[in-house]
Write a structure and sequence with these properties.
Helix 4 packs parallel to helix 6. This protein has about 325 residues and is of the alpha/beta class. It folds into 2 domains: about 240 residues, Rossmann fold (3-Layer(aba) Sandwich); about 60 residues, ACT-like. Chain A, domain 2 (Alpha-Beta Plaits, 2-Layer Sandwich). Strand 6, helix 7 and strand 7 form a beta-alpha-beta unit. The structure holds adenosine-5'-triphosphate and magnesium ion. The site of adenosine-5'-triphosphate has 12 residues, from strand 1, strand 2 and helix 2.
């Protein structure tokens, strides 16, 4: 069963254009001119129940706009959306009861009150029974390790603790579909990892369908087999992250620590020289030749240490955007 179906989604924002200066203000009072921002342009994709999908793109690509359309906060300019067989923008109670949008940069918690107050408010909004509330809350605070902090005013919590409370507040009604917009932004690596592991568990336990946007490729790499790549509102790629890396970066890096200095001219024949500052030498070779080249290097030079590495996903992705694919 498809949990989410997006067909030809487009979303334009109309922004009011005003000429600078007083005259501009005066003019704008009489004739309003608008400019259209095409935030999302003709995007289609489907997600099955229980799938965890990564949504990648540079700033302004249209990720948040898409998630807002899917959670019913924005009315699409064109296209058909279906989430759990609901039309999101109708915002029916039965729909809202089963989804959640978590935004790392926006908070729903009351600043001066303990997180518990927000949890209780959400319990009422979503009509969660006392028994379910107790059970879910107890489970969430344990898993996220914040049991002792639920009665502390939110303003006294650290950024990471606050984010965990945000996540709990968003999950108190046990939603089946989660839209996560940069849930780990600004957090240290330990906290990022904790949240990542929690999300993975949540996905597995509830067979929850999850779309995750993140600028941290580690999040995407750890959680999502399949990714969508978006730029300038257009979909550039929909498929496995691993296939993308293979296709986009059909090479590996070989890092060698030499025992004795060798003139760089002698190294240049072993693939594409990336860097050489004795004793460390890095060369890039086609994936399928990596083994052979390493054997050759070991035969030819006195070598202290050698390692083969895949290119970083970050680099692969930024290469795609640098190529300017999908631009106007
Ligand atoms: N309320 C709005 N009014 C006008 N334009 C908007 C509005 N919200 C977003 N935009 C524009 O729509 C485009 C897509 O924005 P969106 O927030 O969806 O990008 P994003 O992929 O989430 O970026 P980021 O990674 O920075 O969060 C951008 O050009 C942005 O300036
Ligand atoms: Mg965004």
């Amino acid at each position: 069963m498809n949990s989410i179906s997006v067909k030809h989604l487009s979303k334009n924002y109309l922004i009011h254009k005003k000429t600078a200066g007083l005259l501009g203000t005066a003019k704008a009072m009489f004739s309003r001119s608008y400019e259209t921002v095409k935030a999302v342009q003709d995007i289609s994709f489907e997600i099955e129940e229980g799938e965890m999908l990564g949504f990648i793109g540079p700033n302004g690509a249209g990720k948040t706009t898409t998630l807002k359309c899917l959670s019913g906060l924005l009315y699409p300019t064109a296209g058909n959306l279906s989430v759990l067989d609901f039309k999101p923008f109708e915002r029916k109670h039965d729909f809202l009861r089963q989804i959640s949008l978590i935004m790392g940069q926006k908070n729903q918690l009351w600043w001066d009150l303990p997180a518990m107050d927000t949890f209780l408010l959400n319990k009422e909004i979503y009509g969660v029974s006392d028994a379910d509330f107790e059970e879910t809350l107890s489970d969430l605070v344990t898993r996220l390790d914040v049991r002792d902090l639920v009665h502390t005013p939110v303003r006294k919590l650290s950024l990471g603790q606050r984010m965990k409370m945000e996540i709990i507040a968003a999950l108190i009604h046990s939603p089946k579909v989660l839209f996560l917009d940069e849930p780990t932004i600004g957090l240290d690596v330990v906290m990022q990892k904790a949240i990542r592991e929690f999300l993975k568990e949540y996905n597995e336990r509830y067979r929850a369908t999850i779309i995750l946007t993140s600028h941290y490729m580690k999040d995407v790499e750890a959680l999502c087999k399949r990714v969508l790549i978006i730029n300038h509102g257009k979909l550039l790629y929909d498929g496995l992250l691993q296939s993308l890396i293979k296709k986009q970066a059909p090479y590996k890096f070989i890092t060698v620590r030499l025992k004795t200095e060798v003139p760089s001219g002698k190294l240049a024949v072993f693939g594409q020289m990336k860097s050489y500052t004795f004793p460390e030498w890095v060369t890039a070779v086609p994936n399928e030749r990596a083994g052979v080249v390493v054997a050759d290097i070991l035969k030819t030079f006195a070598v202290e240490d050698v390692s083969i590495e895949e290119p970083e996903i970050e680099d692969v992705i930024s290469e795609i955007f640098a190529e300017g694919k999908g631009g106007e």
